[in-house]
User: What shape does this take?
Amino acid sequence: MFAAKEKERPPKRSFAYIKNKIYRDRLYYLMFLPVAVMTILFYYLPMVGIRFAFYEYTPFKKEFVGLDNFKELFFGVMSKNFWRAFNNTLFLSIVNLILATIISVVLALLLNDLKSRKIRGGIQTILYLPHFMSWVVVSSIFLIILSPQGGFINNILGFFGTEPIYFMANKKWWVPVYLFICRWKDTGWGTIIYLAALTGLNPELYEAAEIDGAGKFKQALYVTLPGLMTTIITVFVLNLGKVLNIFESVFVLGNDQVKEVSDVISVMAYRIGMKGADYGMGTAIGLFKSVVGLVLVLITDEINKKIRGSSLL
Amino acid sequence: MNTKHRVFASLASVALLASLLSACGKSSDSSSSSSSESSSGTSSSSSAASSESDSVKKPESIKLMVDGTFLLKENGQDIIEKGYEDLYGIDLIINQPAHNEYYEKVDLAFTTGDIPDVLILDNRRYTSYAYNGALYDITDLYEKSEIKNNITDQGLIDAIRLDGRLYGIPGSRGNGTITYVRGDWMKKLGLQAPKNYDEFINMLRKFKNENPSGLAPNEVIPITAAGLVNTEYPLDIYLREFYWTATPDFVKRDGKWVDGMTQDDMKQALQRMHDAYAEGLIDPEIITNKTSTCRDKFNAGKVGAFNYWAGTWNLNLYNNTVPNVPDVEVTPIPSIKETYYIERPAVAVCITSACKNPEGVFKYFLSTLADGKEGQQLWTVGVEGKTYQKEADGSLTFMPTIQDPTKPFTKTWFEPTLLITKWAPNMKYDERITNSLSMFQSNMKIYPLPPYSKALSDYGSELNSIKAQYIANIVFGDYSVEDGIAAYQKEAASYVESILSELNG
Assistant: This one.
């Protein structure tokens, strides 16, 4: 009789159990509701637009065309331009990402070793500032600095008797200059996560390394870098997902003369989708870009799993 | 969950939900207020046109989509809106996207179905929208209307007919660009306005090598432009002294459409540009220039020649340069004998096919653009006491702008100096404006509308991008003219073939 009175707990994973759990934590769920609504509204609902990739979607026509947009891109009239833009995107993005990772880690290590907090704070502020400038402003600054007519760099070159170089309109120079400008703008910002991760490293490891006779370089190599590796890989994988999204920087720094090396997928999608009002084709290019980004992330995660034995996704 | 957690969670969730709902509420509020404005606007009385009684039903409101050529919201757009309502008793609902995004927003409006009653369209879109049935055919309405008699040059109207049909009317001429040179430099060098290409090149050389302002050759920019090719139709509007009769656009030759890029005159134009660039006569930074950078360079007193809009810009260039170069003279020159200046077909004001009362909109809106009366006055000089004032001698002068009271208005929509009707406001203009306009008009050729084909619409922007790339590559010396054109033909073959097969098909 006593046992019959005892409230029976529903088995785990049953509907009743989940319902009870949700009811018990109802206020937390209520608190999460706005986030869920926002996520659905602004992240998932717009994905319905992916269907336009399979339409001829212009101001005058909305007609389902299946895979025709993709066939046109991969094998049609536009294919040559498309594959060139694709190759440029991959090259510029991946080189930029690798440089970003290496330079940010090295800079973070150097900053971390600064003893004076005031100096470190000052340098960090100076390094972060370019990140907050718009690409249009950055482009104007570098066009002036690199101008072949009285630009700062060409004035210095002129001092050594070198002919002025039109850096922004020279195919050989444009890529290195572009990568340099990207690093100038975002390297400081990129160090933030690594600096945060460095503060979490156990100081006893450094003391032990010092007792074992390791100098600063060896400490960085055998203590700091292994300690940072998870963060480095996480940041790398996260950035890899966005790697094909370069748009603004190329849009403002590119020009007709260097299009062969500067035309990228996002700019092409903008030209066709927005300027040419071929929204179907623009969406198809965007969708292809997203799929490639996803594949890159999955491959990197798989490699990471093989090397480190754990997945980040 | 303990009590503290519950209380905190309740408060936080209520606050977050409230902020979310208030954001949604704001947008619905604004939309409802705009619709109520519209309905209240329709009830106001009319004056000018209400006395006319005929079968055409007067619209209660008109949705107008315009670019930044119309008076901006922050500079008193409401004055014009109210002025229109006072005249005709119609609520004018203006949608004015940012000037540089206008055509993207027009395309989006048609794609999403949020289509205005009236909008302005440039040459390329006018053709494309008309052929796709997005515009109302106003031919019959125009032929029967009074405004036909008001328009002085029917050639301007004929220039925007498509297969004889009319889909819009211009509020002003299309205008074009003229070459301005430093008149003070010419005087000091003892030069006359160049009559042919050789004299023009000689003038640029003298600007560079014997600069009268004492600038070193590497400091002078003999001629500047915002790119070697224009980004919109007509592609060859700038650098006229180099293009001559050539154009990179598709062009009709001997009754057949051809790719202008591969024609002999284009090859010669590319050679001229290449030679002048190599000699340092063309701005070394031409490829990264924007029109604003060209103007800045001109204003700084470094530029000898600059091809830019005829009319008001002559005065603007002078006013902006004189603080840096007090003795500057900004002199327009006639076109050299090998070429002509280009007047674009005028930007057309069109009624869309989605408009429910096109006859009413034609009568109460489009007709006012060339009525020679209060309508045209509103669209050019605005409202008395707000945007312009009457002087004792009866002439009109613009009042200071709202945004910058140190500068007067120059127009409300259409430039008073570019009107296409017998009527023009009684205003006095600086002679720089009138001189450059009359010189332009006696040295120009009105270009036809661009052709239309589905392939051109699909591939036009990509093909133009390829053309611009090869023009730059050739001029900068990456290719010889022959090799560059051959490489272009190889890369652009599939685009050009599909476009030409449709145009000539």
Observations:
- The longest helix of chain B spans residues 3-42.
- Chain B touches chain A through 49 residues (CB under 8 Å).
- The two ends of chain B are 77 Å apart (CA to CA).
- Residues 13-53 of chain B have pLDDT under 50 and may be disordered.
